Amino acid sequence: MEAALGNECDPLNCWRNYPATQQPTYPDLDALKRTVEDLRTRPPLVFAGEVDSLRDMMAKAGAGKAFVLTGGDCAETFAESTADRVRLKVQTILQMSVVLTYGAAMPVVKMGRLAGQYAKPRSSDTETREGVTLPSYRGDAVNSHEFIESARVPDPARLLDMYQRSASSFNLIRAFTMGGYADMRRVHEWNRGFMANPAYARFDALAGQIDSAMQFMEAAGVDFEALRTVDFYSSHEALLLEYEAAMTRTDSRSGDLYNTSAHFLWIGERTRDPKGAHVELLSHVRNPIGVKIGPSASVEDLKELMDKLNPHNEAGRLTFITRMGASRIREVLPGLVEGVKSDGRFVTWMCDPMHGNTVTADNGYKTRRFDTVLDEVAGFFEVHDALGTVPGGMHVELTGDDVTEVLGGAQEIDEKALAEHYETLVDPRLNHQQSLELAFDVAQALAAHRPGFQPFDKGSFF
Ligand code: PEP
Ligand code: MN
User: Fold this and answer.
1) What gap in Å lies between CA 234 and CA 90, rounded to an integer?
2) Degrees to nearest 5, angle at CA 55 with 100 and 348
3) Is the CB of 295 under 6 A from ligand 1?
């Protein structure tokens, strides 16, 4: 087909000519074809104008005029895409955002790692338990977690479930964030509830200031009614190429291509080959794109990604989401940031303090330490501070529920406690309290760091 088109190739299919890693092997290719044809007829989940607004906000974040908060599960499951679970995640992100807005004194871009985060890259294609080897679980969009052969066979019909679950979750999120649930006064009340716990006394000064700011706004006649709605954006890893290509549509007004499965898509650390199929497919769409960057990346790799994903050097188009690990970030990140800075092109930098910090507890649980997560965020701010570049946001795995998956925090979750409410099928998530604790810690440090603003002790870092 490519030959017939000369050097040009169809942007929706060109990726098929590039190496595609992490794709399911579907036994029934006719069924896959039918599913993809069906998906192409489904309405878009997000709209070009919204995507353009987010790109503008990502540009602001890259310029130090906004801060991005992305949060949600490592992988959503169909069973847990319930109204309550989605609502609690949105609530957690809204609560964190209010605190960060105050700390950073800038708008916080609120983005869920949800309404589409149903697929996972895996380090091994197979999983072996007690001598039995089966295909790995790749997320509910691909197969089932159950350890039986039939459940692990990739089923294309799951792509339609993914679409339906994404649509219903995002419909709910739109209703929450447009219908008054995000009212800043209400979110502030929730935060007061969090602060009622004496374990968080170290945030008293900051919480008191936010309280005073709210009272001042009220007294000054700020129109809180206008603050009852917020923009909330969706994002997920663009992993399953058949799905992402099927959801890529031409905008009737501009004629440009948009991936309509989410506002923001990112490419994972394992699939970010500049000559690979994931980068190729996303190079054709107008959405803001993230790329996860681990410690093995070189400045050359980043430049190749910029060439391919942002050839017109548009601010807000490309975000590097660094995930170095707390022990390496201060050693590895400066070289990369310096390389990109001297190159001079626009990039927004975000910090994923989760994926470089996963450990296995002595009792076998895959976990992370709260302090280590915080330390990576601290390192991220320190590096950008030293180089005069902009720390644009953070990307965390969290849930609004009371799970016990990450060690530490003021709740002092220890290895024994992990067994109590360990629910994730993949990576460990901060629970509701730990998420807010992280937001307060980061906000405190951001506030303490603002020029001329030293009203309380410096935060625990930078
Ligand atoms: C993830 O975000 O869940 C993930 C797998 O991250 P990374 O690609 O950075 O390893
Ligand atoms: Mn993960």
Assistant:
1) 11
2) 60
3) no
